[in-house]
Design goal:
112 residues, mainly alpha, single chain, elongated, 0% strand
């Protein structure tokens, strides 16, 4: 059995890489741009956008009730569908951003 240890390379994600050890604030002020900020912000951005999507949907329901009770009930029934479609589009867009960063990480670790 070998007890050989190796120094983690800058692209090594297993042994305390710079991305994992560096916090969000440290990543923001990384002047060498070795640590990406966007992947760390995606979760917070998704939650924020989901909450912000509720505002126009609820506003639409309230506006529909001012137009009449039948329109309001119809809007109340359709509001969850509209909300889920809006969240789906946000999710797809954010996943595309994550895919770009994963492609970068994969290509960064490959030798030329």
């Amino acid at each position: 059995m070998s007890t050989e240890t190796r120094d983690p390379s800058p692209g090594d994600r297993t042994a305390g890489s710079a991305d994992g050890a560096r916090g969000l604030v440290g990543s923001v002020f990384d002047l060498s741009f070795q640590s990406m900020v966007t992947p760390k912000l995606i979760r917070m951005l998704f939650v924020l956008l989901c909450v912000l999507q509720m505002i126009p949907v609820l506003g639409g329901v309230i506006t529909a009730f001012t137009a009449g009770p039948v329109v309001g009930v119809l809007a109340l029934i359709l509001a969850p569908v509209v909300y889920l479609i809006a969240v789906l589009f946000v999710r797809i867009y954010l996943e595309l951003i994550i895919v770009v960063f994963r492609i970068y990480e994969t290509l960064r670790d490959r030798p030329l």
